[in-house]
Amino acid sequence: xxxxxxxxxxxxxxxxxxxxxxxxxxxxxxxxxxxxxxxxxxxxxxxxxxxxxxxxxxxxxxxxxxxxxxxxxxxxxxxxxxxxxxxxxx
Length: 90
What we know:
The protein has a two-stranded parallel sheet. A two-stranded antiparallel ribbon has the order 3-4. It has helices at 14-18, 39-51, 53-69, 72-89; strands at residues 6-9, 27-30, 32-33, 36-37. By secondary structure, the protein is of the alpha+beta class. The chain contains 4 helices and 4 strands, in the order βαβββααα. Helix 1 links the parallel strand 1 and strand 2 (27-30). The longest helix is centred in the last third of the chain and has 18 residues, at 72-89.
């Protein structure tokens, strides 16, 4: 997983995939209007990532944290732990 900011639409569980437990966000969220992304909102989000160095660096830091959360090895360990708990509780 690259440690770069993302631009995502704010639907479903997307927010949970780009925000850390301490509320750092790995990019910009844009709202859908009638099921579509407004071009000006997308452009504004792109411009912010490119021109606001502090925002960009904060997003990169969040992406670094998120990289660990969604690491396949960590996810596999969590799944195995659930299976073991389930097996040994019965």
